[in-house]
Every structure is written in structure tokens, then in C-alpha cells.
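Figure S4 source data
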Amino acid sequence: MGTAPRGGEGLTFTELSAEEQADPVAFLLGAFFTPSDANRAAGRQYMKRLESRTKDRDLPVSRNSAVAQLAAIREWGVIPSANRYATLKNITQETLIVHGNKDVVVAPINALILAERLPNAQLVVYSDSSHGAQYQHAGTFLQHVNLFLTEGNSQLADPASASVKSSAAF
């Protein structure tokens, strides 16, 4: 979901601004949801779902963890000197790639690169969605995942045999 191959397009990330650090909810909503009214409403619903869980919650991400994750993402984004995507053909596991068509965190072209180079990949792109496409389209996403896990890659690739309607669009 919202991922890219090593050395993918546009994988450069800067430090969070003081404003972004001061309001992590606004930052999350801006990164995961597009500015459309429907998407912002989905973002607010997502935040309510997060807040509704009162037991067994994950601890907040520490500053050290965030810094380490950013370093790992930056290293992943370094473009190799040769054969940029050569190793992808060796990944033969069936793979479901899910992406938002307006992802501001990981450019959507990276999902297409993965789909073109992973031999058993299926790509689902959700319209008017950013990095949190699976949260905005939670019901449809769960149907896609269930179909993929129970029927395999071939069922999603063949719209005539699919039991769910895709909201994929560019």
C-alpha cells in the first residue's frame, strides 16, 4: 500500500517542519487524504476509528523511531548505479499492490513500476486518494484483499470474474 521499489521515483523526504510537528493530526490528514470534501470526511472517520480503540493501543512513535524510519526511507530511495529494477522479476509471490491515484507521500508511478515488473502482481488504484487509500475506501479495500487472498491474482485481473466492483481509476 503506497509503496515503491528500491530507487523508485521521487523518494526524497525532508524533515518535518515545526508546523507539521506541532499538529500531527493535521499532518496525517494532509499526507493520507486528499483535500476533497469526501476524502476529508473519510479522514475524520478514520481518526474517530483510531480514537475509539481504548485498549491494547500501540504506543506513540518515538522521535528516535521516526528519525530511524526516515533514514531507512531515504536509503531505500537511493537510485542504484545500475539495473535499477532488475531484482523485481525475481519476486514471484503473488502480490497485491494498492495505491491512491493522488498519493503525495509515494508517487503513484511507483505502483505502476511495481505492477509492470513483479511477475505475479495485481494493481488496484483508488480514485481521489492519497497515502491512506485503504482507509478512505476501507470496505472496498477489504473486499479486494479478501478476493485476492481467496481467489488469487487471476480473479482481480479478470473483471468479468470479480465479485466486487473496483473503484480503481487514474
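Figure S5 source data
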Amino acid sequence: MPVRGWLPFLLVFACVLGASVAARAGVPSVYLVQNSGWMEPFYVEPTAPRFRALLARLIEASQDGGGVTVADFNQDGQLPDRHSPHVLYQGPYAAAAVQDALGRLDLPRQRNGRLTDADFNGALVHAVTDLLRNRSGIIWLVTNNKNSPNNSQQVTQNTHDFASRLSNTAALAGIVAYPIRIPAQGREYAEKGLIIYGIAYGDEAAAALRAQVHGPGLSQLFADPAMQLKPLDRTPLVFTPTGTATPDIAASRTPDGSVVIDGVPGGRASTIDLTGSLTSQYYPQVIDEARITAGFRSLDGSRLPTGDLQGSVEPAVLHRLAPTDTLQDVHIRLTVPDVPRQGGLAGLFQKQVVLDGVVTIALTDLRLVMQDGFADKMAQITALDQLPSVFSDYRHVSAAETRVPVRLVVRFSSLPLILALLVLALALLLLVAAVLLRRDREHMLTIGGQTRRVRVRPFETRQVSAPDGRPFKVRGTLFGRAQVKPVAAPAAGRRKP
């Protein structure tokens, strides 16, 4: 076939391949590394190799195929020959390219010889608008959480704006932090450690960030879980079913976190008693106290009401549930209304129907407190009074909820089908019997010593005469040969009327 003849097939293949690659691609990641004055101890020996190794492992551990941007940042405008953030590498993840970019991290000085200041707010804004081009993505910001040795008014305002943006910007849909203790002594300054922020811009990035912090890469890189900073009112708990206390109903959890409830009886309302555990997703916050309720919402309005349906949880109150701790022996009771069969003949053959819904586990009157000893642990890394307000926003959280996707497998009894088949079989038998009763059957019968051919219907009686004139009665049967009996002669002396 000429090349021109193959062109349509090649175009289709390219479209399918492109769609497949796009489906597998993750969100892009931007890595902003502070290189202003306070970071000086991490850019000189003996800490510099360890610092760059940490950055390389961070970038490797947080990859999901969405592309990488590595940049340093300070305060834009203080260096006449380059802007901040300053891109060192942008493209698909490649270990060699990342290592080369990290090797070019430096500690620049202004024309007056001073080290630069840091503008966290400017770096974050430019990362969203310039590096991500306002697309959803994850920004990893590596900093010692200090801005300017001189505490100038401009830098102080930038830092205030950064803290306000983290707390109040809805588009920054997810924020975590990893405090890292790395004592470092430079020529001019000494530092105790770093904070690595993971900032998700957009809901897609927030979902990817949640998956990454619970995935094997970051879990193996860092000894402690990520600090959950935002949001704190969503997914505070994870429910893991262990079974049900309702006979003939089974429950299991799929890898994506959905719960499958199999064996829900159709045709009648039912109560499902799920048993399992609840694990706190907070760190380093402790659920000091909270009331807990549950409800079920169907996503299939043609089968079930789409409003909240009744549910309950035992225990009804949580006390002192520590970060990542698990509460065992939890019962969630859900009331599911009658799920009817499909109408018509098809309903008789319907064995099951699958309905999707959401179980909402809600915490109210919630009070979060910091884990004992965590403030002292943080003080060994950074000054607590310099932390952005997002670190203390947990004090204002009074309610939170977890939404668990649920799939109900409703099974219908086969009794209506069995009854329908029995009625059909009986009707067929009656039809066959009616046909047989209305049809003459031919019998070869011996009547008065002579074999004769007689036609008679089942249960019909006919009178026939033998060759010698004697009368006989022939009565048909449903099965087998007809019965032949002689007709009794009239009693002697009886006259005919």
C-alpha cells in the first residue's frame, strides 16, 4: 500500500497513543529552592552535598509523570541579570538533568555585595502564573522559613502576604509541610533545619498531593508523616471495613478507598451494620473531642432517593484520637430503603442491580489540639513565631467530614421467577390436558370375542354392539387403553314403559 494509503491509519494511531499518554500523565511539579542569605549554611561545605542529595531524593520521590521545573528563588529585582524564580531545568523528569540543575544552585550576591532577601509570596505567585501557566500543579517550596536578615518593611509585607495567601486562597487547595532537622554552620549564619512545603494549586493537584504523601516514595524518604495544614475539614478519617454484623451481607474495601457492600436484599427496606475501624488522617493534630455521625446519599435517583438517608455510628463521640491512630470496633448502621425490581418480564430475570452512593462520616463539635511534644520538636528546626498562620489554622476548625464512595450490590430473590415458571408449567399441563380431552383416540378393543377399532375421547362413554348383538360400553381414559364393559340385561319381568 502506498504511504498515502497508510496516512489515515497512522493519524488514528497517533491520536489513540496521544490520548493514552495524556490519560497516564500526572500533574506538573515545580520545585522552588530558596537561595537567599539565610540559606547560606546549606550552600557551603560540609552541608551542601547533603542538601543537594535531599533535593534530588525529594524530586525523585514525588514524581508522577507530569513534568518537572527546578528553580531557585530570592527576591526579584535584587539581581539585575536574572529574575526570581530562576529556572534551572524544565522538562520531563530525568535524573541526570535534575542532578545537573541542582549542581547549578548557587548563593548569589547583590551588587552591593550583600546576600539577597527572600520573597515567598512573589515566588509562589510567579510559580503559578509563569511556571505552571495557571494550570493545576504541585509547588514544592524548600526554605528555612526566614526572609531577610535586615527585616525590611517590603520583605516583611511580602511574608505577611505569603502567609495570608496560604490560608485564604481557595485555589491553593492542599498544603502539607515536612519539617527537616539539618543543623548547618556556614561562614556567616547557622541554621537548625528546613521546611519543605507541598502546595497544591487546583483540585486535581490536591488529589495528586494526597496520593503522593501517602505513597511509598515520600513515606520512605521522610521519617515522619507530612504535616496536614490545609484543608483540615475534609477527609479527617479513613474507614476500613472488616465485615458486617448483618447476615448474608459482605463488605470490602477496594484499592481506591471505595467500599463495596454485597448482598443487600432487594424488594424491601434493610438495615446494614458495617463493622470496621477509623484511622485519623491528621498530623500532628490530635482529635481531642468530636461528635461523629454518618449518613448515606444515593447517586442513583432512579432507584433510591438522592437525599441523605438515615445512618448512625458507634461510638458516637471520639476522645483523644492521636495522629494516625486507629479506633477499632466501629459500627456504622445504614438504612437502605426498598430497591424495586425492574418492571415487566425483564424484572423476573433480574438477579442484581449495582447502585453507587456516598457514606458521609461527619465530625461536629470538633476540637483539635497539637500533639504533645510537637512544638518542642518544631522549635529545634525553626522559630515558631516565624511560621505562617496556616500552621495554627487548626484552632479554628470545628467540623470536618469524610466522604466514602460506596457501591451497593442489591440482589433479588429468585422466588418470583420460580413461581412464574411453576405457573407456566401448570398452564402448559392444563393446555395439554385440554387438547387430549378434546381429541378422539383410536383403540383396538376386543368386543364380544372380536377385535374392533373404536374411536373415543378420554372419559367419554360410547355404546357399541358385538357381532351377536350384545351391547357393550366403551369408556375412554386419559392414558392407556379404553375400558370395555358389557351392558347389563334388563331385569326379568320389567316391562318397557
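Residues 25-230 form one domain. The radius of gyration is 41 Å.
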